[in-house]
Amino acid sequence: MTKILAIETSCDETAAAVVEDGRRVHSNVVATQIELHRRFGGVFPEVASRQHVLAIAPVIEQALAEAGVSARALDAIAVTHGPGLAGSLLVGVNAAKGLAFAADRPLLAVNHLEGHIYSNWLEAPGADQVQPADNFPVVVLIVSGGHTELIEMRGHSRYRRLGGTLDDAAGEAFDKVARLLDLGFPGGPAIERAAEGGDPAAFDLPRALRHDPVHRFDFSFSGLKTAMLNLTKRLREQGLDLRDPHLLADLAASFQQAVADALVEKTAEAALAAGARQVCICGGVSANRCLRATAAARMAELGVPLYIPPFAYCTDNAAMIGAAAYYNWLANPRPEDGLGIDVHASLPLPEMVD
């Protein structure tokens, strides 16, 4: 049994978890900053960093206590070192360094995007199904506030980037359209709530790059955002009140479905091209029920198994970092970074070389 304490502070969630063998979660503690940033309409980096400083020690202590282990009883300590907000990442990395040094444990650096990928392997309470340990190739859609990428996995820790967004990430588009509709922050949950009972076909909105051979596996949401801006302007000019619950529900549902369609169709095309044995969708936006339902229906048509983490493991958390750390450690049991690791705000996902 290999137990890893993982620490995640890439954005505005201070998180720590103890994970066994990359799959079993013994504890998973998350201190959220949503209410702190709500008044800014988005994450304020300096505020996020300062809050991490206040929360990091209590969160780590709680994760160890809930798992019933001490730092010296762990096999290793893992921490996110990028991508993310540099100031936020520094808090987690420095805390992990201090703990690893004091407990004389190996320190493992983890890419945040790998963490989202490995959230699919967690044997989490409430999960409908858990990925088989070895059933490759896998096509993974990472979709969050900062990232929208399609990845092919040919094995554990072996990635090839197929495509990604050319402008806004899907979660960023949700935030911007929620602001346009005066729904508040964060945008994803706000639009999902507003869309309840709405008609997703009420307004004809674009699905960009649908048949573009040059950008076969790429996404673009700037045109959809502009279409929503022009649509709301036109409706106001017609004398309609966007606060009307029925109109607002139709607007939110139409936007939400347009995003889901764009994400799912590209993912389905990638799965067919890669001969995928399974498809995984992860990241904060994967909590969206419209996306989950649209993906489930499309993958059922293709006969490809679909895996999406339980809601608690869609948004940023440390359990996913512990899972990624374990599989990376198996592949490289003598990591060279150790206490010398640094943060990388724009760290790309490492790609395999054939």
Order of helices and strands: EEEHHEHEHEEEHHHHEHEH
Q: From the alpha-carbon coordinates, what is the Rg to the nearest angstrom?
A: 20 Å
CATH topology of the largest domain: Nucleotidyltransferase, domain 5
Give the overall pLDDT as a whole number. 93
Let me know the largest β-sheet: 5 strands, mixed
What is the CATH homology-level superfamily of the largest domain? ATPase, nucleotide binding domain
Give an overview in words.
- With 354 residues, this protein is an alpha/beta fold.
- The chain has two domains: 150 residues, Nucleotidyltransferase, domain 5 (2-Layer Sandwich); 171 residues, Nucleotidyltransferase, domain 5 (2-Layer Sandwich).
- 41% of the residues lie in helices and 18% in strands.
- The chain has ten helices and ten strands.
- The strands form two sheets. It has a five-stranded mixed sheet with strand order 3-2-1-4-5, with helices on both faces. A five-stranded mixed sheet has the order 8-7-6-9-10, with helices on both faces.
- A hairpin with a 3-residue loop joins strand 2 and strand 3.
- The radius of gyration is 20 Å and the shape is globular.
- The mean pLDDT is 93.
